Amino acid sequence: MSLTEQLLQKKQEGAAKIPKEIYAQMTKATQDLVDNHISAKAPKKGDTLLNFSLPNSQKETISLSNILSKGKAVISFYRGGWCPYCNLELQALNNILPQLKELNTSLVAITPETPDNSLTTSEKNNIEFDILTDFDNSYAKELNLAFELSDEIKTIYNNFNLNIEKHNGNTDYELPIPATFVVDTNGVILYAYTPEDYTTRLDPEVILEVLNK
């Protein structure tokens, strides 16, 4: 089953399990992000991706410039290990690591979660690539990828016992859209996927197709 199919299945399961009124509020919040065209200001194909220097789960600093000195790169943003869609994406990306290595391409994921929480996510999903912490979504903001959760969604998440403050180590209630960028050794974006809808992600098969061209 492809990642796209897994995500659709997860979405259908959520729609069946979550009370209709709450699910409608969640759907509306996502549609509001789409209507506000957040991705319109995000980096596009042909742009040069800004450099970053961020800590991994071992608290070692990783920079984009260092990554690109070794080859191409796939940079994927995700919300947090508490998000089931994110975990499915991380697992799917992990599965294509052998192919990426053959294509001389590195893979890193970026999240606003603290290093300790990203380490938990990495261990839970048996991730073999670096997960980097973007404290306060600073880098995501530079790329125009970050947004603040609506009051309705904050309440829903709190009722789900989902403590975003604890996961991110701040009180901002901000998250990145689940963007993925494929970049060449000069940092030029070969492919940009910047959906406002957190239930959709770039399928790894597309990543491999772009790199194989």
TrEMBL record:
Which example biological process does GO assign this protein?
Answer: cellular response to oxidative stress
Where would I find the Thioredoxin domain in this sequence? 43-213
Q: What is its EC number?
A: 1.11.1.24
Reaction catalysis annotation: a hydroperoxide + [thioredoxin]-dithiol = an alcohol + [thioredoxin]-disulfide + H2O
**Per its UniProt entry, what is the enzyme's top EC class, as one word?**
oxidoreductase
List cellular component terms (GO): cytoplasm
The question of whether Disulfide bond is a record keyword is answered with yes
Q: Does the keyword Kinase apply?
A: no
* Secretion signal, residue range per the UniProt entry: none
Q: Molecular function (GO) terms listed?
A: thioredoxin peroxidase activity
Record-linked Pfam families: AhpC-TSA
The UniProt keywords, alphabetically, are: Antioxidant, Disulfide bond, Oxidoreductase, Peroxidase, Redox-active center
Would you identify the family this protein belongs to, as annotated? Belongs to the peroxiredoxin family. BCP/PrxQ subfamily.
- Annotated function: Thiol-specific peroxidase that catalyzes the reduction of hydrogen peroxide and organic hydroperoxides to water and alcohols, respectively. Plays a role in cell protection against oxidative stress by detoxifying peroxides and as sensor of hydrogen peroxide-mediated signaling events.
Under which name does UniProt file this protein? thioredoxin-dependent peroxiredoxin
Q: What is the lineage of its organism?
A: Bacteria, Pseudomonadati, Bacteroidota, Flavobacteriia, Flavobacteriales
